[in-house]
Write a structure and sequence with these properties.
Two copies of one chain form a homodimer. With about 160 residues, chain A is an all-alpha fold. In chain A, about 60% of the residues lie in helices and about 0% in strands. Chain A has a single domain, classed as dinb family like domain (Four Helix Bundle (Hemerythrin (Met), subunit A)). At the A-B interface, α1, α5 and α7 of A face α1, α5 and α7 of B.
């Protein structure tokens, strides 16, 4: 591995590890238990699963890796808070889509070389990027990995001990 | 900035951002409110603050950046769960130490160049590192940043809305 490759691998490995932890944690919940709130009056586990799936689905066009697969999740899980709208999908379907979206992202990440990682992401203009080269693809994945960790810390609270 | 520097900056910027978010969140709690649990029967906010401080203090020798400053936190906040032992410090002192440890780490991170980031961390043997060059300093910081995010997601649940 080149130095650059070792540097980007730190980020991709972290993404894979955190997704794996979330998957493992999800495996502890029945579909019915996904209806539990992470704390009294807070988001349901199912809402957080929908939220993460929708945010990750948005990463496909944002990182130039493909079209969105599931824009139908945004209303229920990004635009609105928990229980404002009904759940658009069954828990079983949502689990499937979560895996599908992450698998697609991870496979694409593994094909990118260090130079690709430094390219700007789609939410940044050419001018902004010229001023700040740190608004690149790698920074997006670092940020989204921390976002999963944030909600992982919440979902774990709902797990039966 | 060189390509390598932009890659490592993605990680250091993320560390700084997550620490800043945690600091801002802490600012919402009085010392008394730090005694709240993040959810019924779960860790107190104060315990999580002590835990993160102790883990970050351990990063100093682990990353070859200096001696530990506060090993006295380990018993109460790493080795044991919440409320097994008493709190060794007042909330005011713990807040001060949290800032002190993070400031020292962040200042050191800003001095490291990409080659330094790729050096092995102290918890890995030369043999292990030769087999897996990904066990470097940068990977430790990526991992610890996600660890802060994980607990940040929990502490936010205790915030008065």
């Amino acid at each position: 591995m080149t130095h650059d490759e070792v540097l980007t691998a730190a980020v991709v490995d972290s993404w894979k590890l955190v997704i794996k932890r979330f998957d493992k944690l999800l495996g502890n919940f029945t579909d019915e238990q996904l209806q539990q709130q992470v704390a009294p009056g807070k988001n349901r586990v199912l809402y957080l699963l929908g939220h993460l799936t929708a945010i990750h689905d948005r990463m496909l066009p944002m990182l130039g890796l493909g079209e969105r697969m599931h824009p139908e999740l945004d209303d229920a899980y990004i635009t609105n808070g928990d229980r404002v709208l009904g759940d658009p999908l069954s828990a079983t379907d949502l689990r499937r889509i979560w895996t599908e979206v992450n698998d697609k992202l991870t496979a694409a990440f593994e094909q990118l070389d260090p130079r690709d990682w430094l390219e700007k992401h789609a939410a940044v203009s050419d001018e902004e990027f010229a001023e700040n080269p740190k608004r690149n693809r790698l920074s997006v994945v670092v940020s989204r990995t921390n976002h999963v960790s944030y909600h992982l810390g919440q979902v774990v609270l709902a797990k039966r001990s």
